[in-house]
Write a structure and sequence with these properties.
The chain is of the alpha+beta class. Strand 34 and strand 35 form a beta hairpin. Helices cover about 15% and strands about 30% of the residues. Helix 8 crosses helix 13. The longest helix is centred in the last third of the chain and has 14 residues.
């Protein structure tokens, strides 16, 4: 008899948690930045060049501030010039490093350094060093600002620290570095609560030390307490004011009392999932589950608050930080393991003198704390500091977080509005104070607008196999693309599902620039290059290349007198649709630019690309030139109206990885007959085109009530489609929508109903109409006379 074969069980993947082996830590050195860390004797530091072509520099110091590269077995070949250059600039990591070096009494004046990597280092190249002593190790990713017409972008480096085995007592979860010198640095041990006093203007940072641990937070107005009134954070009043389950950094960021007095403002949130519906856990909750006497947050609150004269309660209302709750379609509230990861935090600014209380939730009988209660850490910072408003953005689920950034044009857009929203890791304007979405919309249709769309992802693709990589990864025929030309295309998985849509710029024979909506497409390009063994680099230039769209009938007149081009480049008047020129502001000595005749509005327009450091000056030049032409700033609300009218698609609405280009309404980007070369997804797309199931159509609705993304589209009781986007068109005076429709019901004139409320109790009559709704022949964007 054969022995039974043991089969390894499938394990749950949790990329949201620290998936590294025990004793391994990961750090990121941001492009043009610096990272400092501690190494103990016997530790190994590995520096990885994930995108290739990026130089690195490393230096080390002992406890006395002495620099000697032999302490990590390296040979000194420099004097920390890369570090000094970065420290003389404005990178945020430079300020942080200056504080670190000052605290350790370290000077770079006589520092040694070792340069790692070369300008031709392949993607994934790495180097490792072993520490012979306890040292402070500093790593830089130096580089100069990339002009818009170059491709020598500076990129991130990744550090892995392999720690020597330590006793369990020595293993301490790594806290994020303080944001500034803290006034108070307090560990809140698991299953406890801690009360503390905060002055108006000071900042409170609540940190989830090991990840997936809830922390209930409550605060009281001291002035009201002195009068015998317990005025604390009221979750219901807060939800009413902000119109959301809980505040978020940005415009609606404050927590209120029952009297609608603001108590604290949320400045940063790196988790993004909290709860304001439930109370802090109570004795009754555990009793009802069969756990009488279980420690709970409400009783812990009572004990912590007693010295401040706050009356005890059986259940405390609170903002339950990191508690992952939601409400399903049947109106049932549910919860699951928190989304928070090790080191995630919220940063709040006190608006009054307050007594605060925070807990490290003790729940170990359900997933609320990932079944394992752990510590919370609290820090208080002086109100003299200024911290940027931010959420956390991650390129992939298991990537290190990045805080929301300001675009290079933000200093100028901020002069016109405070209404910003987080978009793909950046703050972008929703609308502008003196205008509003409708006024901005009409300015684009009748005059000209300027739009900050810097968060678009840019990737430099260069090397002998660059054309082959692009030809393999996008649906358009890149071999037909000329230098100076741009093409709009789709990028698909093997099954035909869309990764992204975007544009490809050809800068040279072996030089391309991919501009898309998400990092998924850039990462996909790099993965395919490595998989196919191609000699090509794919390097992220998003932070080196910010862009304004100048759109509208007057856009050419605004730009033609301020944009200089070389004789071998097309002037603004000559620049054709989906073409670009290397250019400068003013004259041959001006700010370097790339200007393309592309856009996202359905109007004649251009995109102007520059380095972020030059962005304010570029804005100023365009803004001044545009004043005689009624140039107006335009935000995302108006942009959405424009692009829907023009039939332009948007990720997460018209397409996802579950839709192919034909279903997304951009079948023209898949030239199956003329692109003879194979490309990823080609076979699947041939089958999908031969057997279509769904298609994007236009709908015109009766009445003025708008459809919304996700509304069902029915014929009788039968659902035949789903709304992707909708607009009440000012210029067409019609109520319009885009709809992903079953092909059997996509014929023009087909009458359908859009379901509202629960999709059944209220129906809006509609019919299938042609789209694009506005300028279907593209005569305006092409700048040609419309057909008769």
């Amino acid at each position: 008899m054969n022995a039974p074969q043991l089969v390894s069980p499938l394990r749950v993947r949790e990329p949201g948690l620290n998936a590294l082996p025990p004793g391994v830590e990961r750090y990121v050195v941001r492009a043009g930045g610096i990272t400092a860390l501690e190494l103990a004797a016997g530790d190994r530091i590995e520096i990885v060049n994930p995108e290739g072509m990026q130089l690195g520099e490393i230096t080390v110091f002992d406890a006395g501030g002495r620099s000697d590269m032999r302490m990590i077995g390296a040979k000194a070949d420099g004097t920390a010039e890369g570090f000094k250059s970065i420290l003389s600039g404005s990178d945020a990591s430079a300020t942080k490093l200056e504080r670190t070096l000052r605290f350790r009494n370290i000077s770079l004046d006589s520092a040694q350094s070792t340069c790692v990597f070369s300008p031709q280092s392949p993607a994934g190249d790495s180097v490792a060093f072993d520490a012979d002593a306890d040292v402070t190790c500093v790593v830089a990713a130096p580089g100069e600002p990339m002009p818009a017409d170059r491709q020598d972008t500076v990129t991130d480096l990744t550090i892995f620290v392999h720690r020597q085995p330590r006793d369990e007592a020595e293993r301490i979860a790594r806290l994020p570095d303080p944001l500034a010198d803290p006034l108070q640095d307090q560990r809140i041990e698991a299953r406890t609560a801690y009360a503390y006093e905060v002055k108006a203007g000071q900042y409170i940072q609540i940190i989830d030390v090991e990840g997936r641990e809830c922390s209930d937070f409550q605060c009281f107005d001291i002035a009201a307490l002195d009068k015998g009134l317990e005025r604390c954070l009221d979750a219901t009043a807060t939800r009413h004011v902000v119109g959301a389950s809980y505040p978020a950094p940005g415009l609606l960021a404050k927590f209120y009392t029952q009297d609608f007095e603001p108590l604290v403002e949320l400045v940063r949130d790196t988790c993004g999932r909290h709860d304001s519906f439930g109370t802090a856990c109570t004795a009754k909750y555990y009793e009802d589950l069969g756990y009488p006497g279980h420690v709970n947050c409400s009783d812990n609150f009572n004990r912590a608050l007693a010295p401040f004269g706050v009356q005890p309660r059986k259940g405390w209302m609170a903002i339950n930080l990191f508690f992952n709750t939601n409400i399903d379609d049947t109106n049932q509230m549910y919860f699951d393991e928190p989304w928070s990861r090790p080191g995630d935090y919220v940063l709040m600014r006190a608006l009054k003198d307050m007594i605060c209380v925070s807990s490290a939730c003790p729940c170990d009988v359900d997933p609320a704390n990932g079944w394992n209660p752990t510590d919370i850490h609290m820090r208080i910072y002086s109100g003299e500091h200024t911290f940027t408003k931010a959420m956390a953005y991650r390129m992939t689920t298991d990537a290190e977080k990045q805080l929301t950034k300001e675009t290079g044009f933000h200093p100028r857009t901020l002069q016109h509005t405070r209404n910003f929203t987080e978009y793909a890791g950046y703050w972008l304007a929703n609308s502008y104070t003196k205008h509003g979405a409708i006024d901005e919309y009409w300015a684009c249709r009748e005059a000209a607008v300027v739009i900050d769309l810097s968060p678009l992802r840019k990737y430099e693709v260069l090397g002998p196999d660059a054309e082959l990589l692009m030809q393999t990864c996008v649906t358009r025929n890149i071999r037909r693309l000329a230098v100076g030309q741009v093409v709009y295309t789709a990028m698909c998985y093997e099954n035909g599902g869309m990764i992204d849509d975007g544009t490809v710029f050809r800068l040279g024979q072996d030089n391309f620039r991919w501009i898309g909506g998400s990092d998924e497409s850039g990462l996909w390009l790099r993965e395919q290059a490595q998989k196919l063994g191609l000699e090509v680099w794919v390097r992220n230039s998003t932070d080196q290349l910010h862009n304004l769209q100048v759109q509208g009938p007057n856009s050419r007149d605004i730009l033609k007198d301020i944009i200089w081009t070389r004789p071998d480049q097309a002037t603004i008047e000559e620049l054709g649709w989906f073409r670009f020129s290397i250019a400068r502001i003013g004259d041959e000595h001006g700010i370097p630019l790339v200007v393309s005749r592309t856009g996202y509005t359905g109007e004649l327009g251009y995109e102007v690309f520059c380095h972020p450091k030059d962005a304010p000056a570029v804005w100023d030049a365009i803004w001044e030139a545009g004043q005689p032409y009624n140039l107006t700033p335009l935000g995302l609300e108006a942009l959405d109206m424009l692009r829907i009218e023009a039939g332009l698609i948007f990720a997460g609405y018209e397409f996802s990885d579950q839709t192919d280009p034909f279903e997304a309404g951009i079948g023209f980007t898949v030239p199956l007959k003329t692109k003879e070369d194979d490309f990823i997804g080609k076979e699947a797309l041939i089958k999908r085109k031969e057997n279509p199931q769904r298609v994007l159509v236009g709908l015109e609705l009766a009445g003025e009530e708008m459809a919304a993304n996700g509304d069902c589209v029915n014929i009788g009781r039968h659902q035949v489609g789903e709304i992707t986007s909708a607009v009440r068109s000012p210029i067409l005076r019609k109520n319009l929508a885009l709809c992903r429709m079953s092909v059997d019901y996509s014929e023009l004139g087909t009458e359908v109903e859009v379901g509202k409320l629960d999709g059944k109790q209220k129906r809006l009559p509609a019919k299938v109409v042609p789209f694009p709704f506005y300028d279907p022949t593209k005569s305006r964007v092409r700048d040609v006379p419309p057909p008769e």
